[in-house]
# Entry
Amino acid sequence: MTRLPRLSPAPRPRPLVAGHARRLALLLTMLLAMLLSAPLAMAASPRIATLDWTLAETLQALGTPPAAVAQIEAYHDWVGEPRLPESVSDLGLRNQPNLELLADLDPDRILTSAMFANLTPRLSRIAPVENFSLYSPGQDTWKEMRQLTRGVAAVVDRPEAAEQLISDTEARLVELQRTLPDDVAPLLVVQFMDARHVRVFGDNGLYQAIMKRLGLENAWPGDTNAWGFSLVGLEELADLDARLVVVEPYPAGVRDALAQSGLWQGLKRQSQGEPLVLPPVWSFGALPSAQRFAEQLTTALEAADAR
Amino acid sequence: MLARLVRLAPLLRLSPGIACSLLCLACMALASSNLVEAAGLLAGLKALFGSADAGMDALVLHFSWWPRLMMSLLAGGGLALAGVLMQQVLRNPLAAPTTLGVASGANLALMATTLMAPGLLVVGREWVALLGGGLAMGLVFALAWRRGLAPVVVVLGGLVVNLYLGALGIVLLLFHQQELKGLLIWGAGSLAQNDWSGVAFLAPRLLLGALAAWLLLRPLAVLELDDASARSLGVSLRNLRLAGLGLAVFLTGCVVSVVGVIGFIGLAAPNIVRLAGARRLGPRLLWSTLLGALLLATTDQLLQRYSGQVSGLVPTGAVTATLGAPLLIWLIPRLKLRGDQPPAGATAPTGRHHAPLRLAGGLAIGLLAISVVALLVGQTAGGWSWQPPADWDVLQWRLPRVLASAGCGVMLALAGTLIQRVTANPMASPEVLGISGGSAIALILAIFLLPSPDNLTLVGIGTLGAMASLAILIIFNGRSGLLPERLLLTGVAITAAFDGVRAIVMAGGDPRGQQVIAWLSGSTYYVDLTSGLVVLGLALLLALASSPLARWLDILPLGAATSRALGLDLNRSRLLLLLLVALLTAAATLVVGPLSFVGLLAPHLARLLGFSRAGMHLLGAALTGALLMVLADWVGRQLLFPQEIPAGIVASLLGGAYFMWGLRRL
# Structure
């Protein structure tokens, strides 16, 4: 603001232009004032604390970063994008957030998910708690994801941002689906725990929801736990007729071990096409993670098709 | 020894050879029926030799089923061989890879490496495991060195090192759940294979080890003589022992780095062979190795056959540990132990304070001061701060935790004092005797099997578990008159069973497993004001209940004859006291988990301070216990702020260190 008067005088001293310049300066001042007032309006939206990374990711994507999140360092390792700003406070462990600190930060609302339901009575002594669920067994995950986004947006009073995020994501998914190669084989999405055991993803998880959205088939017929995966030995993947999709990261040393593993080489040969390797995506995430996974999967499928 | 074996002979008319053949037949029957189910016998056998042009079924058999069978044979044989060597060198029938802490040392080393220098794992997991295992065993030896590596002291040292490293492991796990997921599976001992590389790694090394053992056979046999006669034969005892133990650690390290922690094979196989009548070292080495191989292979085949009915992964190593515990409990009364007398030193009377009441008053003031600090001093978003006492906003979070930790400290300290006095055993405590472990097993089962158990049910079930542990302790040691060492060894076995159950739960990845980890770590986090008040109230009530029993406690350690002469009904008084111990332990375990050493530490500190008569000892220990727990809780909350280290873990790291120090001085 203070710099404006110095900027505004036009170099030529003609009266007519000077009048213009004054009006221009006024206009610029008003514009700047509007720009400055926007963050002020945002600051007036409620201060939110959340334990759940999925909700943190959604808040960030809605343009209303949370005030406090649990295990921020681990969030950046496992969720990655969108990154949280420096100003967000760390609450400690997700299962045991530091209650004193939380009370001291005095948030307006606390958002949690079913995983932390046992903390609700305690948290509600600090601020009203709102519980969101995602990946409930038997529910349409995509519908739940929309509900969750709208619900979170309602808490921060930005319903229009939710609609924007939903329509952007869905439009992008439609676009991506169009670029998919024809007749993609059923996919088997795994993540390595060590060289002999994998998590294989199925119902109640993000990967499954996206594949369904993109019209792709998941080849895992077995049950999954409440987190949407099942822990199995590599040999159990043997009779499945599918294309393997490996989600990074590999634990240390596993890549080398797999290069020598006869069973893995056999599985690779059996896979419908070279296995796809995707960078890490938070497997319990919401719309932002969903879109990232969709982008990566589509890109990988296209690249494999072009080869 | 001889007399015992003669008495056992009608029971066990088994020679080692017959035992092995029987087991071999069982194993082959199981394996071939598994094979028939998978692909048919002929196709299955063909798959062993090649997979080049075969289908996926044959591929799985070739790269997964057969290597797994070979691996179970190799790992079992290797561990049993290591067990025989350790037992021979230490002249200790209870020495084994798991009881000496080698396995848990390797486990912790791998965890730490995964977090801090994952690059090292690529260079060689086995060297990391070897180093960790070697260091842990070194620590156990350092603890037992002064007592000339007496069997019981070695095993006790191993138990504490195991618990201590386990507690450190839980701290790492709490803060790095995601990164360490893979290691949980490994740590529980899964034999799953997907190529021949594991077998190719292990086979030549074990062969080398077996060869070295064969070369050492004659010199090692000399160790059966006593030291003087051995020396007179011109053998360097120290070099011989080092060579034998080094070989055993090498074998263990190799096995552990490939398949993880596999409990009890190394302990059970050599002892079964010995009980079956093999006495000379040569046959014992041979038959133990064979028996160990067959034991593990049979267990694994059984598990492959029936684990399909359980969802998720059931790791073989944890199962053998759980199944092995009853075997160990059965074995203990049948073993001849060198130095079968109570560890002296620690019972030596310490200075007796002339005015114990004044001392107790001082302790109470100390407790009050610590509590005030824990209530009013702490960190907030803006750094350290001192809260005005009337600020309920902050106190509402701190008060329940101070109350609960004080209550648990009192209860564990009382339980420890009671059990130490009843058994006249200075190293006894709810944790070391497996009473906490038994209570924890019962609670884990309750969490998994009951739909939504409330706290009262959990206290009841926990008490039942603690009482079951006590019953086992008494039934299996009653005839030998509750000899301190045997009692402790039975406790080691119960604790081992608990470790197995814990490993199975944690490897499965069930969401309730997370709850169990959180609870096992023993945090006062979940206590609210009402339950905090209840815990402290219960503690005070039970403390009042135990004070009239102080006279018994003064009399009981004087021995059975004296007690009876003084008109004490021995059985009834012991039973009542032990019931009280069970109740105290269960209630405290429910809040701070099974891992704290406060039950051991508080009675000792109280004695060191000069509380010697039973009544005063109880009072002093209760105050000390409360002080320790409140301190541990506060330190745990501040150390890694805003993350909280559970009070139980902090207390066990403190208490474990004290126990090791005490053991070293024995």
Q: What stands out?
A: The first strand of chain A starts at residue 48 and ends at 50. Chain A touches chain B through 53 residues (CB under 8 Å).
